[in-house]
Write a structure and sequence with these properties.
Helix content is 48%, strand content 15%. It has twelve helices and eight strands. The chain has helices at residues 13-16, 20-26, 117-131, 140-158, 163-182, 191-206, 213-220, 224-235, 239-255, 262-268, 274-285, 289-295, and strands at residues 33-37, 56-63, 65-70, 73-78, 81-85, 91-96, 101-107, 135-137. A five-stranded antiparallel sheet has the order 1-7-2-5-8. A hairpin with a 2-residue loop joins β3 (65-70) and β4 (73-78).
Length: 299
């Protein structure tokens, strides 16, 4: 059973209707690294379709704001904030203010494989997992340093300077973000918090195979009732609601792929009964899978 294909950067065109083919022609290394000012978003088509990427990506907001949905949670990234997402997580670009300024950047793990870059990145992502939030509001000191590094990276990239030099700036940037995180007081995870974190990570990898609270509870070594109470206490939602939200996001991401029929999508999601899949989708989204697909520009 195959998972949703992730978009490589040179296949990004369906996401925001951006001409990534032209960008790829200009920058041969597009699949490893790319940076540009957020002002380029002004003419993009929003909201995007739910999607995955083969690369890490982040936005830094200097002015204005953007809204992104990560899995089923909505986040507003405002002035002075950075949002960094790893490959594989489903994300949806919802909205940006007309005055938005800052930077968008993506990079592959391979691009920072030499040196401490991957360690810095993992520390940042671990922190995001612990607080269930991929955004960071930087203090003034780190805002200024991050902006200076990003501006220099963008200048070097536009000048077609050596990617080796840009790589060093990127690793320095990740180091700055990790330095900021290290200053944040660390809370000790309770047994409840640890269970919720394990549940969320399990859903990320198993949502196409496992849809019941009992099966997740069995994998986590707890009772369904205990799992539900723990999830409800931490998130305000039941475990079943989070499973349904995640399954719906998977379905929407698959429906953005024109080569798959609705029945093939249901099968990929581990649902043999297409009628059940249609009822589930309409119950949680308000429209049928076919009607949802009609709203998507699949050209």
């Amino acid at each position: 059973m195959s998972r949703i294909p992730q978009y490589k950067p040179d296949d990004f065109k369906p996401i925001l209707d951006i001409d990534w083919d032209a960008k790829s022609t200009e920058k041969k290394e597009l699949n490893d690294f790319f940076i540009e000012p957020l002002q380029e978003l002004k003419d993009t088509k929003t909201p995007s379709q739910p999607h995955r990427k083969t690369v890490n990506d982040f936005v830094f907001i200097k002015k204005g704001s953007i809204e992104k949905m990560v899995c089923s949670s909505l986040f507003e990234v405002q002035e002075g904030m950075i949002m960094l997402l790893p490959p594989y997580k489903i994300r949806t670009f919802i909205h940006h203010t007309p005055d938005v300024e800052g930077f968008y950047c993506h990079f592959s793990n391979e691009f920072i494989a030499d040196g401490p870059g991957l360690k810095y990145l993992q520390d940042i992502l671990n922190h995001a997992d612990l607080i269930y939030n991929p955004t960071l509001f930087l203090d003034q000191e780190h805002q200024e340093r991050v902006f200076m590094i990003l501006r220099q990276m963008e200048i070097l990239y536009q000048q077609d300077q050596s990617l080796d030099l840009i790589r060093l700036y990127l690793i320095t940037l990740l180091g700055e973000i990790r330095h900021f995180i290290e200053k944040i007081p660390r809370s000790i995870l309770s047994a409840n918090d640890t269970l919720v974190l394990r549940f969320r990570k399990l859903i990320t990898t198993q949502i196409q195979n496992i849809h019941s609270v009992k099966e997740y509870a069995d994998l986590l070594g707890v009772s369904p009732n205990h799992l539900n109470k723990s999830i409800k206490r931490a998130t305000g939602k039941t475990a079943s609601e989070i499973i349904s939200e995640s399954l719906l996001m998977e379905a929407k991401a698959l429906l953005s792929l024109p080569r798959l029929s609705v029945s093939e999508i249901a099968f990929t999601l581990g649902i043999d009964d297409i009628s059940y899949f249609s009822r589930f989708f309409k119950k949680h989204s308000g429209i049928s899978p076919s009607d949802y697909r009609k709203r998507i520009d699949l050209s």
